Amino acid sequence: MITLVVVASVLIAGVTVYQYKEQGNDYHNERLERKEEQLIKSINYTLKETTYPVTTENLHLIFSEEIYEIANIQNVNFNIYDLEGNLIKNSRPSFESNSIATCLDAEVLNFLRESGETRFVEEKRAAGDNYQAIYTYIYDLKFKPIGIMNLPYFEDNTFNNMELREFLFRLGMVYVLMLVVAIFLAYFISKYITRSLQTISDKINRTNLTHQNEKIYLESPGEEIAKLVDSYNRMIDELEESAVKLARSEREQAWREMAKQVAHEIKNPLTPLRLTVQSFERKFDPGDPEIQKKVKEFSKTLIQQIDTMSNIATAFSSFADMPAQQNETLNVVKVVKLALEIFNEDYIHFITDEDEVVAKLDRTQLIRVITNLVKNAIQAIPEVESPRILVTVATVGDRVKISVADNGLGIADEHKHRIFEPKFTTKSSGTGLGLGMVKNIVENYGGTITFTSKVGKGTVFTIDFPKEQKN
Fold first, then answer.
1. Topology of domain 1-155, CATH
2. Domain boundaries defined on the chain
3. In order along the chain (471 residues), what is the average pLDDT of each group of 10 residues?
4. CATH fold for the domain made of 328-466
């Protein structure tokens, strides 16, 4: 509505200005033609009544006094030229005659001579106003041209311009009033129309999959609003059905993920357990004087792995996090060394500058983190000529840092942002839950895990978690 009023006011103002301009042009043209016709009649009458021969040479005698009388009667000033364009007589007083051209332009003479027309109209701008001048032949009694009459005319638009300004002012006041009314009408009508839409908007903003949503009920809504409300209510019904299906699907997916993770977690201790048994079987010597010590260490390792699987089974059966966290104060250096003992690869090296780094962690979960990272490093260097895996433990301020570095294949850039996603793996076998599980364990203890990798150069995983403060 506001735009319509503004556009209408601009268009009407433009049409009004154009109309006034056209009316002014028509008025001046008609007035000039009337003046010209009356002037020609007066000149012809003078030529009929004169006692001088009607020739070009006698024009200055014929109109010596009559030109002033004609100008006074017709209330115009005009000039008379001979056929060569030379000024013969003008109706202005002598002190104003200096501004009158004594010779006509060649353009005027050529037009009258060659075009076959008996009348030439010249249009110019002078002193800010439009200026017109008519040049027409003066004929003798036998219709033979004997001179040229020039009638200058200055268009005075002062009155028209004043009328136009007054009209535009009145029109502007009317349209300002209409604009104010349109603004108020537009505001109240839009509020009335959008009242129902605001209710629908509020309901849509409160729509949530996690709880039951309310339907919309409006009293006497319009046809369009009623269709919108019906569509929203149908959407709510479909949303409720979809939420039930989604919840069922999520439960089933959670069970599948739980089963996969349990299987993955059980496989982790089985692999080092098998390697430990094979190593003991290969190195077993009944005559070794330290056989009792080795058997004890072997049994200790087996018991740790069995305890790990027992914890997994217990956690799964009780629907708790897998496995349950047991905060205990332990020596990180010692636990990491213990986790590395199950690996027989001679290219695995452990470095630390400290004999004891104390932190509150779960021994089983820390071992699981180290074994997962080392196993990933081993799998990343199958074709490297001189494989090397370096595990380090260090203290930085009040934080403990554990890093596992290898010179393997590295991780491609397109895979880096997904490396900790569950079920994501670049290997041909495996469930892809290992690094996701490691990340969860580390973050549960207030730590972080990061990595840097370069294809063809290797990868470094760094674990950072709080150190236990001494009293």
1. Beta-Lactamase (3.30.450)
2. 1-155, 223-320, 328-466
3. 84 88 83 87 88 87 86 87 88 63 83 82 71 86 88 78 86 88 86 74 71 71 75 81 76 70 71 77 77 81 78 55 67 91 89 89 88 89 85 91 91 82 54 70 87 90 84 53
4. Heat Shock Protein 90 (3.30.565)
Q: Using CA atoms, how far apart are residues 257 and 268, in angstroms rounded to an integer?
A: 17
Closest by CA to 426, choosing from 438, 440, 415, 439, is: 415
What is the reported pTM?
0.38
Whether residue 374 contacts residue 406, with contact meaning beta carbons closer than 8 Å, is answered with no
Looking at the domain that runs over 223-320, which CATH code has it been given?
1.10.287
CA dihedral 338, 341, 346, 347 (to 10 degrees): -40
Residue 40, both tokens: 């020609």
Q: Can 223-320 and 328-466 be said to share one CATH topology?
A: no
Residue 399 falls in which region: left (phi positive, over 0), alpha (psi -120 to 50) or beta: beta
Alpha helices in 206-222 (DSSP H): none
d(CA 91, CA 69): 9
Cis peptide before 145 (omega within 30 of 0): no
Given a contact cutoff of 8 angstroms between Cβ atoms, the answer to whether 425 and 431 are in contact is yes
Which residues neighbour 184 within 8 Å (Cβ) at sequence distance 6 or greater?
Answer: none
Distance CA 17, CA 136 (A): 33
Please say whether the beta carbons of 31 and 154 come within 8 A: no
Q: How many CA atoms lie within 13 A of 261 on its CB side?
A: 21
Query: From the centroid of its chain, how far is CA 47?
Result: 83
Q: Tell me which amino acid residue 205 is.
A: N
